[in-house]
Amino acid sequence: MVKQLIYIILLILSIVACEEIYRPVLEEVDDLLVVEAVLVSNQTENEIFLYKTVNFNNWDNSYPVVSDAQVYVVDENNNRIQCEETAPGTYKLVYQLEANGSYYLYIEYAREKYQSKVQAVPELPEIDSMYTDFTTKTFVSGVSNSTDKISTVEGIQVYTDIDYKGGLNHYRFYARKILQHIDFFEEITGMSPIPDVFAEYRWMSYYPTGIFNIAGPREYSSEKSIIKHELDFFESNYNKYIDDSLLFSGWIYILYQYGINEDTYNFYSDLNSQLDAEGKIFDPVYTQTKGNISCISDSTKVVLGNFEISSFSERRFFIDYSKFKDTVTAFETIPDFYDIPERGQQKKIKPEFWVPYLNS
Predict the structure, then answer these.
(1) Which contacts of 42-46 are long-range, i.e. CB under 8 A and separated by 24 or more positions?
(2) Per-residue pLDDT averaged across 273-280, rounded?
(3) φ, ψ for residue 267 (rounded to 5)?
(4) pLDDT digit string (tens) for 202-240?
(5) Core-most of 14, 94, 105, 196, by most CB within 10 Å?
(6) What is the tally of structural domains in the chain?
(7) Where in the sequence is the domain holding 46, given as residue range(s)?
(8) Residue of 275 and 32 predicted with greater confidence
(9) Do residues 95 and 81 touch, judged by C-beta distance below 8 A?
(10) Cβ-based neighbours of 297, under 8 Å, separated by 6 or more
C-alpha cells in the first residue's frame, strides 16, 4: 500500500513538472496606422493622435506613436489647415471650424497618403426635456460556457426627449457625476471646553464605463423624434460610495451632448456591438470596425480609426433623493459652470460650486 502511494505521488509530480505555458506562434503582421481624430466644431483647439498597433505576441502594453507626419484638415474649397505636432504623435489644430462647413482629414506619412471621407459640421445639439423615474436595473454577467450571474439594483434613471426639427438627429452623450457629501468634526474655538461642530465639504467624481451612449431615430420606424432615451443611472444606495457616517448631499450631474453625423453614429454602433459582446454563442462575430479613413496611395494598406466632426453643448443639473424613499426631492438645472476639481475637501466654508442642501 505504501509503494502504491509513493508511485501515485511520483506520477502526480511528473505531470506537474511537465506543465508549461503554451505560447502559440502567430504570424507577424505589419504595424497598422491608427488615427484618433475627434474634432469638436465649437472649440478653437482640437488634437489628433497618430500611433501604431502592436502584434499579439508583443508583451509591451504601449503603442508606438507616429511622429513627423504631415497632418491637414481640408475644407470644401481644398484649403489646407496644417496641424502642428506639439508632442510625439499629437497634432494640434488651432482653428475653429465653420458652421455648415465640410472638411476631410489628409495625412502624409512614410511616403504614403491617407485621406478620410468628408464630414459635415453638425448644428449645435439641444435637449427638449429631461426627467427622472425610479426603476430597478437588472445586470447580467457571464461569458461563454458559464452560468449567468443576475443582479438587480434600484435607483434613479435620467431620460431625455429630443424632438426632430428637420436637421440634426444623431447624438453621443458623455457625463460626469460629482457626489457631494459632508463630514463633521469638532473644534474648540473659544474659552468654553465644549467643542463646536463644523462641516467638512467633500466631493468626488465618477464617469460612465462600458459602451458609447448614442441616440438616433429608431430603425424601421417613421418616428424621427428621440423619446425616453436613457442617459444615466444613479443608484439609490449612495452608501456604496460613501461611509454611513457621512451625510449625502446630492449629485452634481454634468451632461456633455455631442451632435454627430449619421456615419459617425453607425461607427459607434458597430463599436458597441463589439464592446458589448461577452463570448456567448449568439454574440456578433468579431469583425474589424471599419472607419472612414483609407490609404489613397496604396489601397491594400489597412488604416484603423475614424475622422469625426461633432458639435458640443453642456448642461448641469443637481439631483437629490433619499435612499429610503422612492422620490426625487430635487432635479434642477444649475446655471453656473464653475470649474470643479476631480475630488477634494474644504472645511467650514462651502466651495463656490456647492449646490445648497437642506441639511448642510
Answers:
(1) 42/96, 42/124, 42/311, 42/312, 43/96, 43/312, 44/94, 44/95, 44/96, 45/92, 45/93, 45/94, 46/92, 46/93
(2) 68
(3) -65, -45
(4) 999 999 998 999 999 987 778 899 999 999 999 999 999
(5) 105
(6) 2
(7) 33-124+263-278+288-311
(8) 32
(9) yes
(10) 111, 112, 113
Quick check: 12 pLDDT over 90? no
Q: Which residue has the cell 465653420?
A: 98
The cell for 113 is 497618403
Q: What's the pTM value of the predicted model, to 2 decimals?
A: 0.83
Does residue 253 sit in the same domain as residue 271? no
Let me know if residue 39 belongs to a domain.
yes
In a domain, 14, yes or no: no
8 Å CB contact between 42 and 96: yes
In tens, the pLDDT along 51-88 reads: 998 765 555 567 899 999 999 999 999 999 999 999 99
CATH code (residue 62): 2.60.40
Cell of 232: 444615466
b/e per residue, 95-131, with b = 16+ CB within 10 A? bebeeeeebbbbbebeeeebbbebbebbeebebeebe
Residues 342, 305, single domain; the answer is: no
Between 57 and 293, the higher pLDDT residue: 293
Per the domain annotation, does 229 fall within a domain?
Answer: yes
* CA dist 318 → 58, 258, 282, 330 (Å): 47, 21, 41, 7
- Give CA separation, 319 vs 88, 123, 351, in Å: 42, 29, 18
State whether 100 and 228 are in the same domain.
no
